[in-house]
Amino acid sequence: MSSKYQPQQFGWIGDLEKGLSPRSELDDELIYVNNTFCMLGRFRQAQRLLNGILMSIAFILGMGLCIGIIVFAIPSELLDSSSRDFSVIFVYIASCVLIIVAIYCFLIPELFKTFFSPKDSPIVFNRKTNKVYINESEFFSLKPRFNPLYLLQARKKNIKEYDWADLHGVAISNYSKFSKNTVMFMACKPGTDDVITQIIFDLGRPGLLDLPRWGWVNNYMIDFDVKDDQGNSVLLHLADYTEQTADADLTLYGWPEWMLDAFKASSLDELAQIKQKYGIKE
Questions:
Q1: Residue 245 confidence (pLDDT)
Q2: Is the model's pLDDT at 145 over the cut of 60?
Q3: Measured in whole angstroms, how far is the alpha carbon of residue 246 from the centre of its chain?
Q4: Among candidates 13, 12, 44, which has minimal Cα distance to 26?
Q5: Do 5 and 193 meet the contact criterion of CB atoms below 8 Å apart?
Q6: pLDDT (mean) for 128-152
Q7: What percentage of the chain exceeds 70 in pLDDT?
Q8: What residues are paired with 267 via a beta bridge?
Q9: Sign of CA dihedral 54, 58, 61, 67
Q10: What count of other Cβ atoms lies within 10 Å of the Cβ of residue 164?
Q11: Burial 236-270 (b: 16+ CB within 10 A, else e)
């Protein structure tokens, strides 16, 4: 069996269903919440630090290997007149190119996203308009440009709006002895299973299918005071969370002004008026 969302996600465990969930706990990721919208941090500081350290080590090792190939391996082959096996030289050069491409296309963008994205790379859910807002940074675009210096310019924040109906949860495994899972959002074309982009939602949680955060958001998007079959509250009352996050300053995360207003929209009509006010086109 495989995911219905295409293309497939490596490490796939299962596609997640939306709806009422008995697992609804949160720890310290909640930045702000009221009856209209909530803001969650997607990356814990410890995760970002560990991720940055590991990628920095990989970057240093990759650059060291590349320099070693260029400085030591290739010249020795070229200077050895008795060697006419140019395939060996080709392998060295190809290896060096592949390392550079990997560093440039994967390591550097991830390092940039880790260290220069807005704190926590937040995500906002508006339960009245069913809109979701993502806030993170990207290093560069791979779109071709005639000016190669374009690829050295960091892009601005990647801040986007999605429909909740077009975001679908998928659980993936890290395939380690620690059995951690990550929940990804598959952002699909409306009404299809064709994935446009993949968004990390809950990174590296212990337990293969322990998904309390996914359950909390699903319950939030339905109702705050929902009950299970035994009549027990599935989600804490709104006041408990509102008091906890009342002093949050949402302007610290670099959201554009129109989105800060859009978070508070209580209907799609009100959201349309806000977009018209700021000249935002769909």
A1: 82
A2: no
A3: 26
A4: 44
A5: yes
A6: 67
A7: 58
A8: none
A9: negative
A10: 18
A11: beeeebeeeeeeeeeeebebeebbebbbebeeeee
